[in-house]
Give the backbone structure.
Amino acid sequence: MSISANYGPAADRNQGIEVIRAAHDKGVTFFDTAEVYGPYTNEDLVGEALAPIRDKVAIDTKFGFDNENGGTLNSQPKHIRKVVEESLKRLRTDRIDLYYQHRVDPNVPIEDVANTVKDLIKAGKVLHFGLSEASAKTIRRAHGVLPVTAIQTEYSLMQRDPEKNGVLATCEELGIGFVPLGAAGAGVSHPENRRRHEVRPQNGHALRVSPLFG
């Protein structure tokens, strides 16, 4: 995501492609993107970078925002069927290995979303279904219609909500994979960010919070 400007300016496109390919050379085989990253530019970047090795990697992307209308939530079945074709084209592929609903749309029953993705799976355009930042209740409802392969949710040493709200327990019970978002604290350990995350007790000594070392 960060290669395409969501956090700070976009990286040089050629540099971004080199980074992605270097990651694969070092053993990375699972690549995460979304239509909203950019928007659109990250899917296009990932598609170009991975085209020569497409059959050696898994690609996930996400739907759920209406980027043409202010980025509002939109998981209407008609919209999903439209944007999946656009994502496939940008990603230069004939299938999406894991297709996440990026955010739950309160205006669309999750059962309708799951049934739409089920149709995409039958058509061979999607291989697996995922949810991002969904509640335990929503996960169960979706899983009842179409097996959910993965849940992507923020989780780190500083963000423990999945332990408290039943999401981790639900994933374990149902055999759903859990993909932690921001597992390294979204860059908190970087020297430029440490000052913002200092905790100063009464004795005046600063305790730095690191997502890697506690």
